[in-house]
Amino acid sequence: MDSKEVSLIIKWSGKEFPIEDLTEHDTVAVLRHEICKKTQVRPERQKLLNLKYKGKPVTDDVRLGAMDLKPNFKVMMVGSLESDIKEAASRPEDVGSVVNDFDNEEEDNVAFENKEVYLAKINKRIKDYTIKELNPPREGKRLLVLDIDYTIFDHRSAAENGTELMRPYLHEFLTSAYQDYDIAIWSATSMRWIVEKMKLLGVTDEARDYKLVFMLDDAAMITVLCPLRGVIEVKPLGVIWGKYSQYSSKNTIMFDDLRRNFLMNPKSGLRIKPFSEAHLNRHKDKELVKLAKYLKAIAEHCDDFDTLNHRRWEDYLAKKRSSH
Ligand SMILES: [Mg+2]
Predict the structure, then answer these.
(1) What are the distances in angstroms from CA 57 to CA 3, 65, 67, 93?
(2) Residues 171 and 316 reside in one and the same domain
(3) How confident is the model at residue 98 (pLDDT cuts 50, 70, 90)?
(4) Which of 83, 80, 74 is nearest to 43 (CA)?
(5) What average pLDDT does this structure show over 188-215?
(6) Are residues 54 and 192 in the same domain?
(7) Cα(55) to centroid(ligand 1), Å
(8) Is 62 left (phi over 0), alpha (psi -120 to 50) or beta?
(9) Ligand 1: distance of its center to the CA of 175 in Å?
(10) If you measure from the C-alpha of residue 186 to the centroid of ligand 1, how many angstroms do you get, rounded to a whole number?
(11) Are 162 and 123 in contact (CB under 8 A)?
(12) Ligand 1 centroid vs 216 CA: distance in angstroms?
């Protein structure tokens, strides 16, 4: 399906903010989300003055394609007192991230009917997003994509140093995974922070027995309208698959503590139990030990990851164990 791109300019507070990451299938709710990313003005505070649909102010469910807007149409925005802006700018990065996740198995199959309409956004990322390779991909390896916050790192707790916030057995896990997988990082924050966190955890140290192939940041994510959850940002593996033909859903697995990050590729995602309150859990969390075994088992026994159900990873391991 071809989706036409829609480009708009938001005029607000004496400045112009181009919004380019939209298609005709996106709704006003998605537009508001994109405006928020550019201006920090929260969606509910945005008054979009001259955006009309059938002569009336638009509602959030109206599709941009239905409004017949000229390219680079200027939308006048008002609203938002200084204090609101300050409040918005200081909001925690992961606001709503835990409460707004979904976990029903049925939701994997929810007609995420308009998947195709997001292909335009994915294609745009494939074209415009630069993946900086840290180390070359290796012939015949599968791909493991790891989230950072709450997956391998507790980014909320106070601590003296990075090791205290690191999920236990991280280096052992990565060393083991590296035998069968190229390892990538994908975090919903800016690259600057990703680089800092990896340094803090010692993951990018030269002396490690494993190496990262590349890291992706929030700019590689796309905004989608999820029928059940509203507007969310997701990590579409299609961006990586479009740039590297050796990786596909057959050989890629992604770990994240938020299932909604997998929305575009639910079968490739494994939701890991979140690692938080490091000071309490540092001594008992063994998820990475178990998951290293799972990665090893599927690398050895499975030629097509599409046939796996990662929701049942613990059963898979138990079965493998009892059959030996
Ligand atoms: Mg996370």
Answers:
(1) 24, 16, 11, 31
(2) yes
(3) very low
(4) 80
(5) 95
(6) no
(7) 43
(8) beta
(9) 21
(10) 9
(11) no
(12) 14
Separation of CA 177 and ligand 1 centre (Å): 19
One domain, residues 288 and 234: yes
**Tell me: the pLDDT tens digits for 162-192?**
788 999 999 999 999 999 999 999 999 999 9
CATH number of the domain encompassing residue 51:
3.10.20.90
Report the chain's mean pLDDT, rounded to a whole number. 88
Q: Minimal CA–CA distance to 42: which of 6, 5, 96, 112?
A: 96
End-to-end CA distance of the chain: 48
Q: Which helix (H) or strand (E) holds 99?
A: none
Q: What is the pLDDT of residues 20-41, one digit of tens each?
A: 889 999 999 999 999 998 888 8
Residues with CB under 5 A from ligand 1 (ion): 147, 149-150, 257
3-state secondary structure at position 198:
helix
pLDDT at 70: 92
- Range of 205's domain? 116-323
**Alpha carbon of 94 to ligand 1 centroid (Å):** 9
